[in-house]
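Risk mitigation, structural track. In case the binding assays with pyridoxal-5'-phosphate fail to produce interpretable data, a predicted complex structure has been prepared as a fallback.
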Amino acid sequence: MKIDKCIKEVERDSRVISRACRIPYFPLVVESIKGSIVKDIDGNEYIDLLSSAGSINVGGANEKVKKSIIEQVNKYVHYTPGYLYNKPMIDLAEKLVKITPGEFPKRVAFGLSGSDANDGAVKFARAYTGKSSIISFIGAYHGVTYGSMSMSAITTKMKRKLGPFLPGIYSFSYPNCYRCNYGKKEGCCNLECLNQIQIAFDSYLPSDEVAAVIIEPIQGDAGLIIPPKRYMKKLYELCAENGILFISEEVQQGFGRTGKWFGIENFDLIPDAVILGKSMGGGLPLSAIVGREEIMQSLDPPAHIFTTAANPVCCSSAVSTINIISEDGFLKHVNEVGNFAKNYLNNLKDECSIIGDVRGVGLSIGVELVKDKISKEKNIKGALKICYRCYEKGVILICLNGNVLRIQPPLIITKDEMFKALEIIKSSIEDYLQGNIPDEVLNTIKGW
Ligand SMILES: Cc1ncc(COP(=O)(O)O)c(C=O)c1O
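Fallback model:
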């Protein structure tokens, strides 16, 4: 594998880009993308299992998306929706109110990133309810603006040196059945994690001062943790009983990722609002909050205007992306390839000493690596080494929360490509177990 040109560019990059802006993985400089295959500037090809951190669900160079972008660019690139109107934005908003869960009147507020949409959700929730407290979850990653970071509780590394954060944010345990904080076995508990919220309501957090619960329907960066259905139902009921808005944070799990349009649909719940980003723009910067009309009309302008939000090029790209996901058979394909991958990985788990857990819905699959299955001690070095070996063998794979392999390819990945990638993961795990991946790779691949 020749990577001379990549190395040169990475060296240039390291002299001018802030280290706060990149998580070190591999020296891969992207030249082009075709389907699920990424090509680097040295001509090496990789099967992409990362899909630009879940932001190119229909691929990073989808022909239909490219066409809609070019058509719009040929007309004009931007005029701010803060003052004038643009048709792609209205087209998109109409689509969003239709595809998001809930048959009630809704409105949309656009932004540029998942982070700002999370901030917006806090603003709308506070304005509508007249209450200030927000419930979020340990393990959550909501972004890097001050509001979204205040609700994030995944690693102190991202919060160090930055406080004080937004007041009124309370983070509770997310139900992680593989690593239950309360020592319970999956399916044999009394939802002790949920009970912590009730304890808080009884002791220090007046429930009538809580504006919203903001929750990822599958906790992404924490390691693709899937909450039990009964937890989500009870949490939803708790919100309803206490007049608290239930907001689904769909930045990572939305737009077909879980084999349904939105992650929350896996739980048959209708949220008051959804927070959208990443793949919505088909790879271009775009975010939105879509919620009940009365919530979304509760703020006065300019409380949530960004000069370059709802850019017509991004909105055209988003409309095209939604049309592709709406095509017959698209979500069925996501489920089929996802089930195929999960079966493969579950079989691998049975024969492999370091795979502690395989979990996922659709094409959002996590493979948790441990030192052994009894202690469940996180195998962070192993995960990094395996990701690096996968890169050397032609697969882009990263880990979440230290030790969870993140399998989130573009949703258009073929079954053959997925099989090839899984075989490479398997052989990379074998290389690791045989001690064939040198420690030196850890100088390059570092993760969070
Ligand atoms: C669940 C979730 N919410 C919010 C964000 C932040 O989105 P952005 O990076 O577009 O600001 C991310 C990014 O990884 C995410 O995974």
